[in-house]
Amino acid sequence: MFIVSYDIESDSTRTKFSKFLEKYGRRLQYSVFEMKNSRRVLENIKSEIEHNFKKRFTNNDSVIIYGMCEACDKKIVRYGYPVQEEKEVIFFC
Questions:
Q1: pLDDT tens for each residue of 28-38
Q2: pTM of the model as a whole
Q3: What CATH number is given for 2-87 in this structure?
Q4: What are phi and psi of 9, to 5 degrees?
Q5: CB 31 within 8 A of CB 7
C-alpha cells in the first residue's frame, strides 16, 4: 500500500490530478489517497506525474508518495475501516 498526498494551488490541475488518482485508489481525505496495489501502479503514477503533471506544477505545489510496508502497517492506527478491507492489502517494500 502507498499513500499519495498533494497540495496543488491551481483548481484545474488539482481537479485533473485527483481524477487521475481515483483510477488507482480511494480518497481518504480531500487531498489524500490510499493505493492498494502493485509496484506497477506506483510506477504508472510516478510516470504520469513526471510526464504530464510536473510541468503544470508551480513552486507552491507538492505531491508526496509514502510507501508503506507490512511492518509499517502495524504501527498505523485505523478507525472506521471494515475488517475485510484490511485483508485485501498487497504490500511491497
A1: 999 999 987 77
A2: 0.76
A3: 3.30.70.240
A4: -70, -45
A5: yes
